[in-house]
Amino acid sequence: MKQTNQPFANTAFIAMIFMSILVNSCSDEKTSDGNQPHVSVLLVDTDRKSRNIEEDIYGQFLEHINHSVEDGLFAEQIQGQGFEAKDYETYWKSVENKGSVKVIATKFKKGEKSVQLEASNNSVGIRQGRIYLQKEKEYKGSAWIKPLSGSLQTILRIRDSTGTNIIELPLETSGTEWQEVGFSFVSSKTDTQASLEIIASGTGSILLDFISLMSTENYKNGRFRSDLLQSLSDLRPTFIRWPGGSFASIYRWKDGIGPYASRVYHPNEIWGGYSDYYGFGTDEFMELCRKLDSKPMIVLNATTTDTAAIQYAMDWVHYLVDPSTTIWGKMRAGNGHPEPYTIPYIQIDNEPMNHGLTPVQYAAIVNAYGSRLREIAPKSRIVACGQKRSNDMTWSQTVIDLAGRNFDILGCHNYEYENENFQSGIQRINNYLVDLRDYIQASEYPDIKLAVLEWNLCRTYDWRAGLHTAGNLIMYEKLSPQVEMTCPALLMRNTTDDPTWTAFIYHDHVSWFPGSGYLVEKLFREHYAKNTWHLLRVRLPTCQTVIISLIQFRN
Q: Residue 81 domain-assigned?
């Protein structure tokens, strides 16, 4: 419940909650006049604080899945920017086919392919549709061009969904080397299905690569889509877990830092294989956390005790927390961030059992990584992986017993896949968390805290998902502070993606709408209070439905 912003008049403050009861669902108990009672009273002593509720129960989890980041929160509007793999065939079409359009194998930055436009006294070009433009908004972007031969006049053309020109701009080059050619324009109309074309006219040939477009507003907003950023901001996440999820186990962090055109293409092999040029990387995530005033949780790729794999993960931590005098600190400073980042939480992989690891093998990984993290990032708290949905205690107990000295928080996962379990599933995970809490307190490492770092009713976004969210949050508050932090999943999903997984935020390239879980979590978050109130007395008739209003009395 939300605390009042005004001080109490005296320390004997008593809150009285009046509950209006639906007559047709109450018991047969009668009042003195023979009628059913309509009001019951709940007395609460707000001066007696029974326990704290950890605010980190209200965290969020951002994974690169179902276009939550690419073609989602990250505001780049061009898909298949660099023509790698099958990106040209997937996202682009040739236009004005009087010349030749070819995808050729050639080196550009760290890419392997570019598009060649070749014309002989005619015009040729490429087009991508599904561009969202808003009237009177400014847009900016660029294309990398390398003149090869002849003299071609290259233009950028923006058309609306009917094929009518909105604007044409020259893309001027000089010399024969790769060069980034920038452009900007103000759209004269709103269109959700506009198209971008690059047309070359004359005689000669050029190479094209890494084409970019976004609104100037989003560009200045950290390259985040303003509406989706606001939807996330409204949840006020205390921390954000990133980059996964299962995606964390394949993420190559070194390929996602530095200039955008120099980053490395990776198809999202875990979640559908869609194109990702790693435009949203480490520094973008840290900027997101800064904007939202959220603490970052970095999830390491940690599926083996191989020395090279451990060092790769430790290099990431060095990049994040080192002073600017070290190798990795200098690289971070060169990317625009001279001061070390503050990383409160570092997790050692995501769901190691998905990689065939036993709890004993994973405990060895935690010891190998955790001992290094204690040295490199002594101010960070280390998160190990607990069970994945099952109430079987074996995994979590083994990790605690064998590696408890090298981590601080045990992060469990709990999805309900059967919609009919929207209520019963809450009691199941409650029983598991209570048993696990008791085991930890009796163990050699009683200071370990619990977290539930993925949870949701994940096959629907109807009213059941909302009730499941409410039940979970009530349970987590009840089990706090031993349960210290939680975050639901999925956070975002493009409506064109696999509908199997549901989310809190649904979006396309234009707008978004909330699932019921989003609305409930937002409500709970807005009314978060640090302390519980102690109940003095409860007297209620037997009812199935109550409507509650809170009135605070003074003196």
A: no
